[in-house]
Amino acid sequence: MMKSPRKKIRSLLVVVLSVAGAASGIWGCRRWHGTHEPPEARLALDAYYPEMPPDANHRYLNLPMDYTDESSGRFRAFYVLSTNFNPKDPVVFFLTDGQMELVGPEMDFSFFDEQLPGVSYVLIGHRGHCPTLFPEVYPDGKLDLRRAMNLYGSWQRVEDIERVRKDMVSAKLLPSDGRIMIFGASGAGVLAQQYLQRYGEHVTRTLLATTGAPDLARQHGWTYARNLAEIDSQAAASLSEIAKLENGRRANLAYMVFQLARQGQSGLATLRKIVHEELTHNFLPYTLHDLHLSLRWALTRTLLSLPAADAVKVRMYELLGRDLQSMSSYGYDLPLYVWSAEVLKNFLQEPVSLPNLQLDRSRYQGEVLVIAGKDDVVFSPAIGNAIASAYSRSRLLLVRGGHQLELDPEYQRAVRRAFFLHGLHAGETVLLLDTPPSGPARRDGEPQ
Fold first, then answer.
1. Beta-carbon contacts of residue 434 (< 8 Å; ≥ 6 apart)
2. Is 0.85 surpassed by the pTM of this model?
3. Are strands 180-185 and 367-373 parallel, antiparallel or unpaired?
């Protein structure tokens, strides 16, 4: 069956843009042309999206736009329950942060079901993501950075999550004690830690996958993102030579380096070939790979310039802004920083105040499982260990693979399921954590 034009656009763009974690969904807007202009209106407080009428699995609620001033008005928010949702079961809040536009009226559940097979979970629409854009961020039709940082900021998002939890308690969609579990990967892992800071008493278990912690990184004298040389010194050295020859940095090359490195060892192998040829002034391999939409900086830069991407940039600035402001120099060794600095240029020039992400993790008494990829270009195993060490009931699981945890998918699914259904110290979970795969690595779809 042929796809509609709108679905073709969405399928195309899902491949293109990923920011330190998961594919962003600017394409998730109900009307593609609407992403080119600032929003002029929001969904009425008694309305619903035609593609998503309210039912047992699709719920609407009205939330404050600004929790620091609840008189400023409300917006129409929504959350979605998994197809197998059972309110009598333990419930996982599957979090996405400002960089992950994965939840919308016409979303595909297959990705989420693969992550949490057989587990009841909740997905929450994100303020600032299509279709929940705020006209108030655009007085006179222009982006107000300070309003964007406030209304699209992660601490507002934390309060949205808590209001959803309370709504579910009222609707008897949670166990009687109202407690939940949390799953957050990449930037959403930081958001999960923020939620635990304020509302950890409502959370029994938390799984943090390939994630970081801006405050812990600063305490240890590390950058928020990982240095490429830790993973592949050969590629990093070659890229340093390229930078010297060019007397500068190319955002397009940095973007390709970042995206390839996110794929783990297979991407790093491709990267080494490209940079080797660049040193010999053979630009054909780079040019050919630039045809891949997922590696194409020009297209990603265009998408990130749209109003529909402003919430994405707010979260990027929250997490990267302090490093970008304070570091005198960085290059291809931190490829994320090279292209992000271009995307966040107006945030850095003002500069806009950053939120306080200093967290006290010692107060949380629930279980925490931290999963880190050995070849993760975004977050090092060291920051994963620091996060795990900061929680009193925790464990670090170091696995093969890169930021996407692309290797041993069946094992990854088994670990998530065992942890959420049985806990950190159950026999099934302990056995899995104690015996991670060590043989030939497999990806999804490969024969056993």
1. none
2. yes
3. unpaired
